[in-house]
Amino acid sequence: MTVWEEEIQTIYSFICRTAENPESGVCWETIDYENKPQRHYNLLNGVGGIPLFLHDYFRYSGDGEALGLAEKALDWCLAYVSSIPNNEMNFQRGEAKRQVLPRRLSLNVRRCLLLQLAIR
């Protein structure tokens, strides 16, 4: 295993170890721009970016558990976003993110899950 592969595995192991399981999916405590702990759907510094890594990790490793975590994280993000008012209209925090990004990533994750099931 190369150093690069070891580092990827270390990140994945950390994500698995620190995952929290509320009723609405899976989330993680992340750090906001003021260096304070948070649980938020933000793409850049919240839970929202973690499914992107997990999806790529699956593509690299074939580990189906990574896809399962990604899907549960998307479920959590969608549940969280549904409680936010519609007046936030930028991509990072607003309507575009609420409707476009989670659905697009969710479709991609679900396609990979279906492919994985079909291959078995």
What does this structure look like?
With 120 residues, the chain is mainly alpha-helical. The protein has one domain (3-119). Helix content is 58%, strand content 3%. It has helices at residues 3-18, 50-61, 64-81, 95-99, 101-119; strands at 30-31, 37-38. A two-stranded antiparallel ribbon has the order 1-2. The longest helix has 19 residues, at 101-119. It is globular and about 45 Å long. The two termini are 26 Å apart.
- Content-based structural category: mainly alpha
Largest sheet: 2 strands, antiparallel
* Total count of strands: 2
The strand line-up of the biggest sheet is 1-2
**Total domain count:** 1
Poorly predicted ranges (pLDDT <50, ≥5 residues)? none
| Rg, alpha carbons | 15 Å
- Note the total helix count: 5
Mean pLDDT: 77
Order of helices and strands: HEEHHHH
Give the overall form. globular
Proportion in β-strands: under 5%
Distance between the termini: 26 Å
Please estimate the helix content.
55-70%
Give the helices and strands, then pairings:
Elements: H1 3-18, E1 30-31, E2 37-38, H2 50-61, H3 64-81, H4 95-99, H5 101-119
Antiparallel strand pairs: 1-2
Quickly list its features.
5 helices, mainly alpha, single chain, 2 strands, two-stranded antiparallel ribbon
Quick structural summary:
The chain is mostly helical and 120 residues long.
